[in-house]
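Recall the central idea of this unit: under ordinary conditions, the amino acid sequence of a chain determines the structure it adopts. In this exercise we apply that idea directly, starting from the sequence alone.
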Amino acid sequence: MINDLLIQNIEKNIQLSKTDSEQLCGYFKQKVISKKEFLLTQGSICKFEGFVLEGCFRVFIIDNKGNENILYFAIKDWWLMDIDSFMNQKPSQLNIQALEDSKVLLINRKDKSTLYNSIPAAEKLFRIMSQKAIVAWQRRLIRNHCQTAKERYYHFIDTYPQIVSKLTDKQIASYLGITHEFLSKIKKP
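Accordingly, the structure predicted from this sequence is:
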């Protein structure tokens, strides 16, 4: 069942009754995304919070010089969205693109608000998930400021081996904030 993965993810954070779990899952709609298709484009408003059932996405910006900067990847059992655009209903600075054929579960703002009212524990769930996301971002900022590019590369491949095989060296370099050429030098034995 498609909701099993979502329920397992939720249960990592809080315990819900079977009825509440099923009701919560009912607020999400499944969407199939083809490889290279965009789920969100820079300038549009993010109308969803998403949970990845299958596939891989990259979340990135294009800077003023036309360079792509990858903020994060999202694979099976991960969440994705532009929190600023979603919360504030302002144009997104981000792009979200499928790197392979993918499936996601999406919830919109109205349904998320209704969910909070119908299942009070859902608010606790999303608070805990937000806190975990902030911790992950903080750790990444610290690594970016305190580690060499080589250390960041090895941390990435050690921490996310399930992602590395899905990515090109150019994408990994963009995520690490280095050039493709520099990554090639790092990888040489």
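The chain has a mean pLDDT of 94.
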